[in-house]
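Blinded run. Sample ID left blank on purpose so nobody reads anything into the name before looking at the predicted structure. Input follows.
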Amino acid sequence: MSLSRRSAAIAIGGTTCAFLAALLVGWWRVDGPGAPRGSAPADALPLPFYDMDFQLTDHSGRKVGPSDWIGRPTLVFFGFTYCPDICPSTLSNISSWLEELGADASSRLQVAFVTVDPDRDSVEVMADYVTNFHPAIVGYTGSPEQILQVAVGFRARFDRVSMKTGYTMNHTASVFVFDARGKFVSSIDYHEPQENAVPKIRRVLR
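Blinded prediction complete.
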């Protein structure tokens, strides 16, 4: 085998090994032993609200359960207030979507921001944080056990990651869209363009 062919074979072999290693790491973190708490199979859809069982506390101190979200279309996003980029970006995007939809549409929507970091995100912290975004956005917190139970119903994923100076949270970054009956309709992916996101919300407002 010539030197050039041997080099090409080595390069291809190295690329293949790297690809297989990436697949293994992905399986380990998503469906394998390293999957985050509250995880479910990647293709599992969120349950309808009437099949969920949880209790949360909103940023005004009111206790709510899944039945309280039935009757109006609902957007649900999991995150945390110490999040450096994904959460404030997504909540800002949601605020822009609501502005485009207008006051009437916004008043007919429920928008829930559920923390995955209840150890730091108290009712008071959530109340202060959501003031940075559209007033229709309501913050929700609870005990670690309550947050886990909510995440299981939504098939959302989260995991605590240690750092040199504390910890951060890995979590599902999509916005879940439910109709007024409490049934899951679609999701809006992180960084999905506004021209795609807003029509998805309009459909559940009809």
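Unblinding after everyone has recorded impressions. The beta strands are 56-58, 63-64, 74-79, 110-115, 137-141, 158-163, 166-171, 175-178, 184-188.
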